[in-house]
Amino acid sequence: MKKRLVIFHPAIVPYRIDFFNSLYQAYDASFYFMYDDAKEQSFHQEALKKRLDFTPHYLSPGLFGRKNLRLQVFSLLRHEKPDLVFCSEFNMLGLFVLCYKLFCNRKLKVFTICDDSRDIAQKTKGLQKYLRAFLLRFYTGVILASKDAQAWYQEHFKKQEKFLYFPIIQEEEAFRKDLYEALPATKELMEEYALKGKIPILFVGRLIDIKNLFVLIRAFAGIADTYPQTVLVLVGEGERASALKEEAEKHKIGNRIIFAGKKQGTALYAWYNIGQLFVLPSYFERFGAVANEALIAGCYTLCSSLAGASGLIEEPENGMVFNPYSETELKEKLQQAIQKSPVLENARVKANKMPYAYAAYWEQLIDRIIAL
Q1: Is the backbone of residue 252 left (phi > 0), alpha (psi -120 to 50) or beta?
Q2: What CATH superfamily classification does 172-339 receive?
Q3: How far is Cα of residue 291 from the mean position of the Cα atoms in its chain?
Q4: pLDDT digit string, tens, across residues 109-151
Q5: 295 close to 354: Cβ distance less than 8 angstroms
Q6: What is the pTM for the complete model shown?
Q7: Which fold would CATH assign to domain 4-169+357-371?
Q8: Which of 78, 75, 74, 76 is nearest to 92 (CA)?
């Protein structure tokens, strides 16, 4: 018989669906989400639910409307009688689950999924820092998305076996199928923006300060004249969109930057097909799931050293890592990548650049969970 698993998670997001489905296949699992949609950005929830192998459930609002006071957790655990529970990050919900373990089921194994990068892990301060240290004493295991973060936790909390590694990645076959289905839309975009013979440099994400896009625009401006075949594509929306357009005009490269707006589904896959290079320049990034998507789509990827996704880069084969605070370093890495990048000739799906398959990461994780 499969072991009983309960998963508490903030929301359904596209880059966690394969992981959730894998858990559902491995366990007799129930999923409870805190919110109807992700807090930082909205996703097409009805489309995402069609990809789920399971039926999602949603927690009631917290006591007195406080999101951290989800006392419903206790009644759910009494009803579900799980062997394992997965939580998210270090918060009050996890504390409630551990209280249930202490008073109702000492044999319960409790894991938390933590998206910290190393930089975020070591800079955590105040109440959050002390809550993390307290909870870590009682969690069975912590699943970290970053190799560097895993190393930091192992060093500082002296529990090597407790800290597991599983990056925020998607199953390649399904993602690449979507890329192929987006080829007609890819062709349309190539014609609309006259991209044949160009080297499109792609960014996907929110247009906000922590994504470091002003540095990206200035770095691109520094090489634009040297490489006239390049074009920068920013896919996303956000509060800094107008200021970024002004920055582009200030450096006289407004005609070399495409502000594509927010895209999901086929429209997004088409841009991944178009991107010859991908850049994730964030100076604050828990992981950066878009880097995995770009690599699956065959984009040579330049990734911020502060993003957990930098662990997916094997220099110089599939990309390069750079200091996001150094405009000069980013410009140099862009030049190196452009020099060996082919121009976009036709609508096609590029070769996968992920160093390892999803299945390999999953098998390693499930073996570690069983061992704890």
Answers
A1: left
A2: Glycogen Phosphorylase B; (3.40.50.2000)
A3: 7
A4: 999 999 999 999 999 999 999 999 999 999 999 999 999 999 9
A5: yes
A6: 0.94
A7: Rossmann fold (3.40.50)
A8: 74
